[in-house]
Amino acid sequence: MSKLLSRYAIMFAGLIALQLLVLNNINLGGYINPYIYILFIMLLPFEIPGWILLIFGFLTGLTIDAFSGTLGLHSSATLFIAFIRPTILSNISTHDSVDRKGSPSMMINDIGWFIKYTLIVVLIHHFILFYLETFTFVHFFSTLFRVILSTIITSVFILLSQLFFYNK
Known about the structure:
By secondary structure, the chain is mainly α. Helices cover 67% and strands 0% of the residues. It has helices spanning 2-21, 39-42, 50-68, 73-92, 111-134, 140-164. Helix 1 (2-21) packs parallel to helix 3. It is globular and about 45 Å long.
């Protein structure tokens, strides 16, 4: 248990540091903003209680908010994906495709399943984050374009990170 806890603590610290020190400085034309820190919420174990998942979601977003000066934006988006994650997992999973032990990573599950899971979670996160950031529908299509481009880039980063640690 302590080995698993230390693994998630290192993953949390590493993803937050990567996000704050490297990825927050990537802003291509104002349209592409990769947010890989949500991988922490995505990779938490299947059997984690819902209330702990919500706490981790909030604390992850709050940590990014505190260091980025965007109090509330990342917390809201990350808390929502933590809230909706069990529903997403149950809707995209069949009994044969997912082993309910471990975490929903590419090492445990099918690559196609993980790509679908990643795209859904990242799209929801970015949609909430960017529309809360603009807080208007005046620039609906430019914000939607930003959501789509950032979702693609973030998903590629997440998939590359999983392939880097992929052991099958």
